[in-house]
Amino acid sequence: KNADLFDLSKVRLIGFDQRGCGLSTPTGYEGLQNNTTQKLCDDIEALRQHLQLGPVVVQGHSWGTTLAVEYAKAYPASVRRLLLIS
């Protein structure tokens, strides 16, 4: 569990389901026809801006490591550090 990696009394942990996973919208195949890595990166950036956050630490596990790296490449000023697992 990702929360177990952090001292939640010292950090703010924000998790999100990428498009088509978990409780995200859109769901199902129809909602994923135009899904791209860039759109996923744009979603992360939109969430960061919506929450009015400065540069963030981005943690990724498995496929999320690739997405975290691509986000950092697309939005370098938005990323303080990467925490990549697996």
What is the topological layout?
Blueprint: H1 37-50, E1 56-61, H2 63-74, E2 79-85
Helix pairs in contact: 1-2
Please provide a written account of the structure.
The chain contains 2 helices and 2 strands. It is an alpha+beta fold. A two-stranded parallel ribbon has the order 1-2. Helix 2 links the parallel strand 1 and strand 2. Helix 1 crosses helix 2. The longest helix is centred in the middle third of the chain and has 14 residues, at 37-50. The two termini are 14 Å apart. The model has no long low-confidence stretch (mean pLDDT 87).
Quick synopsis:
This protein has two helices and two strands. It has helices spanning 37-50, 63-74; strands at residues 56-61, 79-85. The longest helix has 14 residues, at 37-50.
Total beta-strand segments: 2
H/E series, N to C?
Answer: HEHE
Helix percentage: 25-40%
DSSP helix count? Answer: 2
- Unreliable segments (pLDDT under 50, ≥5 consecutive)? none
Pairing-aware structural class of the strands and helices?
A: alpha+beta
